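Friendly challenge for the regulars: who can give me the structure tokens for this chain first? No prize, just bragging rights.
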Amino acid sequence: MMHTDDGRLQALRARAYALAESGRFAGAHAVEQALIAEGWPNAGAALQSSYTRKAISERCMAATKAH
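First reply, four minutes later:
Bragging rights claimed.
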């Protein structure tokens, strides 16, 4: 089970990074809300680390500047 859970978390984080890089979101909270709306029920838990939230926020800012 542990391997499956890790795979799901990796998939969720990859989706979070893709959303962040789309330029449609202002920060990690907005990305988290979008993930929940897409049906990722464990989005909050998967994105709770400060490292992950910072990486998402940085990607959001970079994407906003690029657009």
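The first helix runs from residue 2 to 21. DSSP finds four helices and no strands in the chain. Your move, everyone else.
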